[in-house]
Amino acid sequence: MEQENVVDVIVVGGGAAGLFYAAALGRTVNGVLLEKTKSVGKKLLMSGAGQCNLTHGGSIKEFLGHYGDKGKQLRTALYKYNNHSVMNFFESNGVPLFEREDGKIFPRSLDAREVLDTLVRCGERNGFKIDYHCNVERIEYDGQVYTLFCGSNGTDKGKSNTYRSKKIVIATGGCSYPTTGSDGRMFDVLKKMRLDIVSPKPALVPVSVQNYPYMELSGISFPEVKVTVYEASGKDLGVSNTPKKLLEYVDDLLLTHTNFSGPAILNISRAISTGNSLSVNYLPEKRPEELLAEMKKAVSGNSKQVGTFLAEYVNAIDPKRQLPKRFIELLCQRAGIEPTQKASSLTGDQMKKIASLLTNDRFSVSGTGGFQVAMTTAGGVSLEEVDLKTMACKKYPGLYIIGEALDVDGDTGGYNLQWAFSSAYVAGMGVE
């Protein structure tokens, strides 16, 4: 069974970027959105733990620093359709929003399904139908018209559709969460079209370290810690004991059963490789030597137990940094200290160990999470292949590439969805 479809616009990929392209086009076309699985928006439904963190508040100028070293290249697209434009789109289409204290923008319902349903409805209003189980296996271009050859990705194994159009939009995402359909296979199709693909790698992933000590503290989080990545651990540096600093980030940290996670870790994971050194400062206001000097004064004549003393001391530095009792006890254990001993009995070496663990908890990186747990993908179609003012492919007229299919990965907090929306809108401006 074979069917040929001739349409005005073909969108390949039913994720956030593809759906938003269809929804925000602003005119009616004879369009089709090709989705390789049985439903659209799977990753969108997962975003923000199902609550859908659409974008971030504040000035769009502040966004540029949240895309690694590519922020300046993305400036035009982000400015053309900024975070306030995104908010206006959803609110004008019946999705009330609110901004959390941390600046993240969510639908008031805290339900990603409302966002997805709105995008599908708006896309249908603009003339787009969705064809499911369409796996694009090959794209041919004769100088005027694109022909997309699709095999079935569902139960109808005999189905083989051909789609033709002068305009196609690639919105197939990267390789993260491959079970949702975002498995990177489109990159092979684009390679055959002689497009340069930056090798994909997982981004926004947890980080594993050697001798991870916090297995029993899974679920404990710390606000605003400072995480620093160094080129190598000290023992790998030979005569030098000063490793090169690669990146530093301040944000929330989460302890899991097997590794470090939370925004502070996820946002620097793009710069981390096995063998790097990772330093965690749970009290970023303090340097090790400063904390040690203060502790020496504070323990003099202090008859409280070490665990109680440390909890009160850290709380006095910043009330929001209340260290959990289990964490303090484990910290004491790592420093060779009995939590019930008197603070005044602490030796200089013991205080030095505690100060070091609190401000420079050092680990050697053993690896990062794979695509199965990656929130996004680093790598994809090289930015050199597209005009970032229009998202048009330089080698192929009428071909547009948007969203995570490009070599763009942002921080957590709504920045990746903002890029999906901005790039989709800008691409739609060029399609008549």
Automatic annotation (TrEMBL):
Its cofactor is FAD. It comes from the Bacteria. Residues 201-374 form the RsdA/BaiN/AoA(So)-like insert domain. Residues 8-429 form the RsdA/BaiN/AoA(So)-like Rossmann fold-like domain. InterPro entries: BaiN-like (IPR004792), BaiN-like_dom_sf (IPR023166), FAD/NAD-bd_sf (IPR036188), RsdA/BaiN/AoA(So)-like_dom (IPR055178), RsdA/BaiN/AoA(So)_Rossmann (IPR057661). NCBIfam families: aminoacetone oxidase family FAD-binding enzyme. This is NAD(P)/FAD-dependent oxidoreductase. The lineage of its organism: Bacteria, Bacillati, Bacillota, Clostridia, Eubacteriales.
